[in-house]
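Human:
Class, as today's exercise, you are to examine the entry below, and be ready to discuss the fold:
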Amino acid sequence: MSKGELLVLRKELTSLLDKGFIRASNSPAASLILFAKKPGGGLRLCVDYRALNALTKKDRYPLPLIQETLHNVAKAKWFTKLDVIAAFHKIRVREGDEWLTAFRTRFGLFEWLVTSFGMANSPSTFQRYINWTLREYLDNFCTAYLDDVLIYTNGSLRQHREQVDKVLTRLKEAGLYVDIKKCEFEVKTTKYLSFIIEAGKGIRMDPEKVKAIKDWEAPRTVKGVRSFLGFANFYRRFIRNFGQIAAPLTRLTGNVTFRWTAEEQKALNTLKEAFISEPVLAQFQADRDTVMECDSSGYVTAGVLSQYDENGILRPCAYFSRKNTPAECNYEIHDKELLAVIRGLEEWDAELRSVEKFKVVTDHKNLEYFMKPRMLNERQVRWSLILGRYNMEILYRPGKQNIRADALSRREQDLPADANDDRLRGRLIQVLKPTTSYYEEADKATGTIAMSTRIRALLAAT
């Protein structure tokens, strides 16, 4: 750890000890620690509980259903949103099990007396606790999604204030306090569970969910047109007169001079509008089979959240596309693909945690084994803590079959003018970077370590 991280660690450990959240330990088990950056700045102490979580019997206590929550708040006139501070630390670890939570630091071995971020059952346990705390008010004028509490009122402002007072009183009695900086009081419009709720106008989708489609600029080359049409063709069954609408774009893929006119722009705009409207775009429902498709190019991460409808047809619910930072552009290909998965999980956290299980589709086969015990760098360990919150299955699908996410991660507008197709480079890397175990087996098989060393050097120089 750096000198700065050691200072933060000492301060954090002192604070946790003073609050009675941790104690010194002599446990035979110990997990590693690391720091993650907080969204607002600063560092958060995290523990790598992958091994513990793999052995933990999962608590399947459900999170609130998004559809039911939105139905309850749709006609409200006033909203107050509360953010509970250090929510997981309000739940004690069962007596006798504290040793399982032990973690090793530069300053000694410690164990938790309360639940912590990164433990598999922390979210479900806290959801049970806050539901019990607010049981008289839930679905009446209040809802709670983990540490986010929303109070909604159909009546007057005075009535709303009375209801807010009741909720705050009950939270205080339960030892739960809120972060005033993150709260909203007596507002007419608020964002909750990735939806915008506005008094008098009901509920609408957060524009960020479809921004990746709305911002898709006109292709500049035939390759760009083909990429867009590859994305569009997957949804053609939902779009009436698709062939007629797409005809101007289809013509550009033939043996003609590339000229982008008002006719092609109209076709592009019409299809983009169709992608973010019914019947193409479906409302997310927690009781449907869910798929998150992710992809990363050298410069962009992207994803599509979809569900199978009552006819067994896969329909999109939301999209995202985000440019990588210069540092992220230098990640190894497997880290770029994992970054796409992490961003998808963060983008659709509420939706994905409301389903029993979902599938993640990626075109990088190594990600299927990521959650298995293995050595990870610090960034990957941070990501593993995020992955540990979700009940999911990672599936491999070749890039040529992962059309939707692939197209969103390769919009021409996001790529440098001199960018090559990174998919070829990625496949080359996968071929030319054998694992350490491969070298060890090769040494044993050939019996000629010197020859193996020469081959290894040649591969490294390629």
